[in-house]
Amino acid sequence: YKAYSNRITFIDHTSYDLIGPLFGRIWTKYCYKKILNRISSLFTDDSIIIDFTPIAELEFKNNKRITYWYDLIDNFSIHNRFSEKEKKAVRDKYAYVDENADIITAVSDKAIKNFLNPNKYVMPNGVYLENQNHECFIDGTPNKVYQLGFVGFVTDKLDVDFLNKLSKKFSIIIWGKFFDDSIRDKLNENIKIAGAFKYSDLPSIMKSFKVGLLPYLPEKSHDESPLKMYEYFKYGIPCLSSMNFEIKSRWFVNYLEYS
Fold this sequence. Notes:
Number of helices: 7
GO molecular function: transferase activity
Shape: globular
Radius of gyration: 21 Å
Organism: Escherichia coli
Helix content: 10-25%
Keywords: Transferase
Protein name: Putative glycosyl transferase
């Protein structure tokens, strides 16, 4: 980053609109419009604008100096935390992007499959090379307290039934903030709930369990990023998931394929 920082422009804009944020995510649809012309005037040479906002309208189609690159983090049009009105706004944004973006990227095939734009590409969160002789996944910390662990926000897409079934044979710890308190009440009492954490705590958190979990209900999933899988792999932790991602590895298992 530092090597190219003189070629990257960061635009910091503070909105003094006190009413707009009361409308939640929908407010972001129009919150950039007033500064678009000012932004466009900054570019005298050919430039690339990277947009990853799910709702905000950024119209650069008439500016020939700008390459408009849209990057999907998740497929927010089916996001379980978005209202129906917000999902409609996302679909409108995606339709505009599909027609006008010069390039579209996403972290998974599922997230990008409905776009018709010919310049669409899957750009995964990381590069994984399987090495049969690599021993980074061999557990060298036998003092780990829990056999299974989950790290991330807890919402109603968590596969509670699967976790409760696992908890009858294995010790489980859950790290993360609960956005749906009803889920907490449905979990078996022997599942340890560690609560919210800071990202800087992650190295110590990953030492507390042997196998990482990505237990999401397929009907509530939204073609999300495999970032958590890469986080587990970074710390030499195998992953048990309800979803398939772009890699094939003996350290990654989709449990739905065996149920």
